[in-house]
Amino acid sequence: MNKAELIASIADKSELTKKDAEAALNGFMRSVEGALAEGEKVQLVGFGTFEVRQRKAREGRNPRNPQEVIQIPASKAPVFKAGKSLKEIVNK
Questions:
Q1: In sequence order, what are the beta bridge partners of 76?
Q2: In 10 A of CB 31, how many CB atoms?
Q3: Is the distance from CB of 69 to CB of 92 less than 8 angstroms?
Q4: Nearest Cα residue to 52 out of 82, 78, 74, 80
Q5: What residues make up the domain containing 74?
């Protein structure tokens, strides 16, 4: 499902216009992005949790030259952990 299909599905299930559904989805995405940028968690009970995890610096291999060892710097990564209800729906 791409963004346009998601907007159409939201509009259909919530009886909103596609324009209103797109505005709501964009607002949700900006809110999650803002919270994660500030280091906060976004927890939606039953659905899941968005959070940022720290990755440690490590050594890796250059794919073009496998003998070359490169240093991969530490970074932050956004992560989504599915909640119990979502896991149950997916596993039916």
A1: 54
A2: 11
A3: no
A4: 78
A5: 41-92
